[in-house]
Amino acid sequence: DGTKNFSRNVTVTLPYSSGDVIGLTESSLKLFFYDETERYWALIPNSSVNTTSQTVTGIVDHFTVFQILQYSTPS
Question: Whole-model pTM?
């Protein structure tokens, strides 16, 4: 129908390699999406990393630009 949101959630899984995360804490990787309106990378809060399969997975209700970034809790 032209909307950006789906009628139900979908799971997005992105792979990464060891070379992609040099200098990052692998256990702190999360999935983010680019908020085009606000122009920043927004955390997908339910995302999680699987260091064995080297993937990051999140549940979303829309497709957009996704990226794996290291997340640290704001102080």
Answer: 0.85
